[in-house]
């Protein structure tokens, strides 16, 4: 009877131990699975963060490049406009100078023509006066001789 009781006790203890071991194994497996899942989630989150950072950096770089290109284009356009304005101003100045020179030349030519005309008129007047004087002298001489 005692032996049977001991045997029954051993059997119960063995069963309890087996159950406890099985439960422990299950718990360990569950813990391991949870740890693995957590690690995977952390890795995924890190990867996503890295990807987001890289995308943001790429976008920022693209925006900076676009801004730089726009600034360069604006500067080039401004320089071209300034050059065109300078060229136009130079052309206008040259045209004004040419017009002034032409006007001066025309004035000089007109003055020279007027002087020449005056000289010619004076010479003609002098010649006419001389001729008249000669004619008068001749007639006075003839009239003197005849009397």
UniProtKB/TrEMBL annotation:
TM region(s), chain numbering: 12-37, 44-77, 83-109, 116-141
Molecular function in Gene Ontology: ABC-type transporter activity; ATP binding
Domain ABC transmembrane type-1 intervals: 1-63
GO (cellular component) term, any one: membrane
Signal peptide annotation: none
PROSITE patterns recorded: ABC_TM1F
Keyword vocabulary terms for this entry: Membrane, Transmembrane, Transmembrane helix
Domain of life: Eukaryota
Keyword Cell membrane: no
Listed name of the protein: ABC transmembrane type-1 domain-containing protein
